[in-house]
Design a protein that fits this description.
The structure is a single chain. With 219 residues, the protein is of the alpha/beta class. The chain has a single domain, classed as Alanine racemase (TIM Barrel). It contains nine helices and eight strands. An eight-stranded parallel β-barrel has the order 1-2-3-4-5-6-7-8. β7, α8 and β8 form a beta-alpha-beta unit. The longest helix is centred in the C-terminal third of the chain and has 21 residues. The two termini are 25 Å apart.
Length: 219
Amino acid sequence: MAIKENLDKINNALPKEVTLVAVSKTKPVETILEAYEAGQRIFGENKIQEMANKWEALPKDIEWHMIGHVQRNKVKYMAEFVSLIHGVDSLRLLAEINKQAQKHNRIIPCLLQLHIAEESTKFGLDEQELNELLASETISGLEHIKIVGVMGMATFTDNKDQIRKEFAFLKSAFERLKMKLPEINTLSMGMSGDYTIALEEGSTMVRIGSSIFGARNYH
């Protein structure tokens, strides 16, 4: 019952307005079901094919969030069911999501990923690229996507001041974006190692895996 206990502990610590995404990547269906039976309904995956297989196998009231880097040629495999795509970092990807959503007569919510870390390996837009994307004529024609907020990943470091600085920057970028898109409401930042700092800096959605499911087995 460790999963239920972990979920209860985290949920009790989260403010009411914060959404918990249970990061279930690499976890088997049985483990996800255990979390589901403990009341969790939102799960995050980072590989589209794996997520699609789990969607097939698991209860249909689960919301699936795509939290990993998205390849355009894979969007079609999740367009039918995905609830939120976190890592949108280009206009071409938005256009592809729009195209695939249209086939299923859906509007797919998306978060724009901003690059806030000092590591070059992380994906995301810088603020100038974000503004260019929003100003482009293409985006106004995309009727099957809805930008609902932003997401970002802090540098993988023990330096809490640096993590806080990066999250604070993302929060300020979110606030500036809100002036242009008043309807956005999601600031997705914070994972198992740094979500307490993310909450202090105004996160509305946290992505937590190992603190719920235990350490991950990479095969």
